[in-house]
Specification:
The protein contains 10 helices and 21 strands. By secondary structure, the protein is an alpha+beta fold. Strand 18 and strand 19 form a beta hairpin. The structure holds flavin-adenine dinucleotide. The site of flavin-adenine dinucleotide (FAD) has 40 residues, from helix 1, strand 18 and helix 10.
Length: about 400
C-alpha cells in the first residue's frame, strides 16, 4: 500500500496530541498535519477519563516542568472554556491536614505555590469551616481559589473541532504509523508512548507502569459541599491521595485511586487483556516488591485495599463530616495513569519527560496535571520540535 505523505504525524488524539496539532498550526500554518488515533472516537483513555480538575500548580517543586506549566495552563484552560462557553465549576479547593506532620507539608506546599506564582492562602481550621462547614482539618488548611473543574470530554471535543477546522486530519481506528511517510513524528500515545518511543530508538531507560484510578459517586444532592477537598499527599509519590471533587454540575465524587494494573488498559475485568503485557508488567511489579527505589510494596497494599468500597469511603471520610458508605454505591468510569518508571533506578518519574531528535519527539509521562497544562505544554512541544529540526 502507498504511504501517505505528511509534514507532521502525531500519534495519539488525546489532549496532548490535539493541543499540539493546534499549536503546530500556529507556527506552521501551511503544514499538513495528521493525527492517528487507534480508537474509533476521542476520549477513550486518560483525556476522557480523568477528574477534570483544572489544577492550580502548588504541588510541584519549582524547578519542574509541571511547576512551570500548571499556573499558565490553569489560566489558559479557563480562558479557553470561557471563550467557548464550556461550563466550569470554579469552586476552588481546600487541602486539609490530619496531624502535625501533614500540617508541616501544608507549609511546604504553600512555599511551592508561592514560588510557582500560584494564589494560595494558609488558613485556620475555623476559616476552612467557613468555606466548607463539613471539612475536617488539623489546625490549618490550604485554600486554593483558582482550582476549578470541567467535563474533560467536552473540552477535548471542542479542541478537536478547532483543530479540524484548521485542516488537521484525525484518522480514527488507525494504529499503523509505519504506513505514513512523515517529515516529523510526534508520539503522544499515552499508555503506549514508551513502546512507540522504543521503535524509534528512545525510552531506553523508561517503561510505563499503569495505575488505575477508580471513582465512587455520591448520592448526595448537587451542592452537598462547596469546594474540592484534598488530603495532604505523600510528596514522594506522583499521586494526590483519595479526595473529593465536584463535577461541573456540582455532584460529589471520591477518587481517583492509584491501583497498580497488570496490563495497560485494564479498566474492568478482562477488558483489553494482553498476555505479553501481563508478563512484562507483572514481572516488573514483582521486582519492585523486592528492590524498589520507592516503597512500591506499601503503595500496592494500600491501593489494592481501595477496591473494597467501605474502605475507600472510610479513607475519604477522614476529610469530611457526614460521609456514609450507603451514599457511595456507584462506581464511575475508571481512568488509567500512564506513569513512567525509570528502570535503572526503579523509581517513578515525577515530571513530564520528552526525548527526541531531528525526526521524532516522544512525550513520555504525560500524567496529571497534563490535562491542565495542555496549552502551554503543547507550545513547549512545538518549540522543542522547532529547535530539533533547525
Ligand atoms: C484517573 C485520572 C485522573 C486524572 N485527573 C486529572 C485532573 O483532574 N487534572 C489534570 O490536569 N490531569 C488529570 N489526569 C491526567 C490527564 O488525564 C493526562 O495527563 C492527560 O489526559 C494525558 O493526555 P495524553 O494525550 O497524553 O493521553 P491519552 O488521553 O491517553 O491519549 C493518548 C491517545 O493515544 C492513543 N494511542 C495509543 N497508542 C496508539 C497507537 N499505536 N496509534 C494511534 N493511537 C494510539 C490512545 O488511544 C489515546 O487516545 C488524570 C489522569 C487519570 C488517569
Amino acid at each position: 500500500m502507498a504511504q501517505q505523505v505528511t509534514d507532521f504525524l502525531i500519534i495519539g488524539a488525546g489532549i496532548v496530541g490535539i493541543t499540539t496539532a493546534l499549536s503546530l498550526k500556529k507556527t506552521y500554518p501551511d503544514a499538513k498535519i495528521i493525527i492517528l488515533e487507534k480508537e474509533p472516537k476521542l476520549g477513550c483513555h486518560a483525556s476522557g477519563r480523568n477528574s477534570g480538575v483544572i489544577h492550580a500548580g502548588f504541588y510541584y517543586s519549582p524547578d519542574s516542568l509541571k511547576a512551570k506549566m500548571t499556573r499558565a495552563g490553569n489560566i489558559a484552560m479557563k480562558a479557553f472554556c470561557e471563550e467557548n462557553n464550556i461550563p466550569m465549576n470554579c469552586c476552588g479547593k481546600l487541602v486539609v491536614a490530619r496531624n502535625e506532620d501533614e500540617k508541616n507539608t501544608l507549609n511546604l506546599l504553600k512555599e511551592r505555590g508561592d514560588a510557582n506564582g500560584v494564589p494560595l492562602e494558609l488558613i485556620s481550621a475555623t476559616d476552612a469551616k467557613k468555606i466548607e462547614p463539613r471539612v475536617k482539618t488539623f489546625e490549618s488548611a490550604l485554600w486554593s481559589p483558582t482550582t476549578a473543574s470541567v467535563d474533560p470530554t467536552h473540552v477535548l471535543s471542542i479542541i478537536a473541532q478547532k483543530a479540524t477546522d484548521l485542516g488537521v486530519e484525525i484518522h480514527y481506528n488507525s494504529l499503523g504509523y509505519k504506513q505514513y511517510d512523515a517529515a516529523y513524528t510526534i508520539n503522544s500515545a499515552g499508555l503506549y508512548a514508551d513502546k512507540i518511543a522504543q521503535d524509534f530508538g528512545f525510552s531506553k531507560f523508561y517503561r510505563i507502569l499503569p495505575f488505575k484510578g477508580l471513582y465512587l459517586y455520591s448520592d448526595e444532592p448537587a451542592g452537598a459541599i462547596n469546594t474540592h477537598i484534598y488530603p495532604v499527599p505523600n510528596i514522594k509519590n506522583p499521586f494526590l491521595g483519595v479526595h473529593f471533587t465536584l463535577t461541573t454540575d456540582n455532584h460529589l465524587k471520591i477518587g481517583p485511586t492509584a491501583i497498580p494494573c497488570l496490563w495497560r488498559e485494564q479498566y474492568q475485568g478482562l477488558d483489553n487483556f494482553k498476555f505479553n503485557e501481563l508478563m512484562e508488567i507483572g514481572q516488573r511489579q514483582l521486582g519492585l516488591l523486592f528492590r524498589g527505589g520507592f516503597d512500591f510494596r506499601s503503595l500496592a497494599i494500600e491501593e489494592l485495599k481501595k477496591y473494597y468500597r467501605p474502605h475507600l469511603v472510610s479513607q475519604a471520610a477522614e476529610l469530611l463530616e457526614g460521609i456514609h458508605p450507603s451514599q457511595y454505591t456507584r462506581w464511575g468510569k475508571p481512568g488509567i495513569r500512564a506513569q513512567l518508571m525509570n528502570i535503572e533506578t526503579h523509581t517513578l518519574e515525577m515530571d513530564f519527560v520528552m526525548e527526541g531528535d531531528a525526526k521524532s519527539l516522544h512525550i513520555l509521562n504525560a500524567v496529571s496535571p497534563a490535562f491542565t497544562c495542555a496549552f502551554p505544554f503543547a507550545d513547549r512541544i512545538v518549540e522543542r520540535v522547532g529547535a530539533l529540526i533547525k
